Amino acid sequence: MLTLALSKGRILEDTAGLLAQCGIRLDSSAVDSRQLILPTDDPGLRLLIVRASDVPTYVQHGAADLGIAGRDVMLEHGGEGVFQPVDLGIACCRLAVATRQGFDYPRAAVPGKRLRVATKYVNTTRRHFARKGVHVDIIKLYGSMELAPLVGLADAIVDVVSTGNTLRANGLVEVESIMPISARLIVNQAALKTQQRTLAPLVAALERAARATSGGQA
Ligand code: AMP
Questions:
Q1: Which residues contact 126 (CB under 8 A, 6 or more apart)?
Q2: What does each C-alpha distance from 94 to 21, 91, 97 come to in angstroms?
Q3: Which of 53, 72, 205, 217 has a Cα at 20 to 30 A from 93?
Q4: Cα(160) to centroid of ligand 1, in Å?
């Protein structure tokens, strides 16, 4: 039995579509329930519902054979102990810097100045500003990042942006795009050997489904 870890929401919705293309269906009443282990109609595959940032941890330690996680999550985790064989091209968005309207970001984000940045993407943010030579004081938050510039906790935030509606609703503007984000299929390195007979066909089928889906960049 293979175990696939993923988060609820956009990734689960898009993955359900890819699995359907592979001939695997989820039980919709289980999806709508609070169950954390979801069966599929394939007795060889079950899903684990975990927090997005925990997906690589489950896969790294072999509690799940494979998982689906955003590039943003994988960059923060570091990717130790997991292969990332397929860009599924789902849950696309971008990692961006945003500030209050009227904040002079081009003058503030220059070498020699200090910028206070609130984010949950601590490692990626540190690397981004280090490349630019900008000193940053990073304030780690776990959610509602948009609030930080509004109440003076930070000058800027780094967060994932899709439509930009959340930023606009809070009077923030995107001032710099850092990188495009999409969800990756990740695989436990040991499982790739021990479960190869069942794992390899599923990885190949998901890759084919991702390619066939419009917008799939796999
Ligand atoms: P937006 O469509 O820009 O208003 O995005 C709404 C919120 O959902 C933002 O605060 C993001 O943190 C989050 N979000 C949007 N797209 C994604 C994604 N692909 N992966 C993870 N979080 C996302």
A1: 136, 138
A2: 26, 10, 10
A3: 205
A4: 6
Give the Cα separation of 15 and 21 in Å (integer). Answer: 10
Pairing of strands 2-6, 45-49: parallel
Rg value, the chain, Cα: 19
Question: 95 C-alpha vs ligand 1 centroid, how far in Å?
Answer: 10
The residue assigned the tokens 């906790």 is 153
pLDDT digits (tens, 9 = 90+) for 55-112: 999 999 999 999 999 999 999 999 999 999 899 999 999 999 999 999 999 999 999 8
State which of 160, 168, 173 you would mutate to test the pocket of ligand 1, scoring each by most atoms of that ligand within 8 A of its C-beta: 160
DSSP 41-71: SSTTEEEEE--GGGHHHHHHTTSSSEEEEEH
Topology, domain 92-178: D-Maltodextrin-Binding Protein; domain 2 (3.40.190)
What is the pTM (predicted TM-score) of this model?
Answer: 0.94
Beta bridge partners of 187: 66, 83
H or E element, residue 21: helix 10-21
Superfamily of domain 1-90+180-213, CATH level 4: Periplasmic binding protein-like II (3.40.190.10)
Instruction: Say what angle helices 10-21 and 196-212 make with each other, to 10 degrees.
Output: 100
- Ligand 1 site, CB within 6 A: 10, 70, 91, 93, 159-166
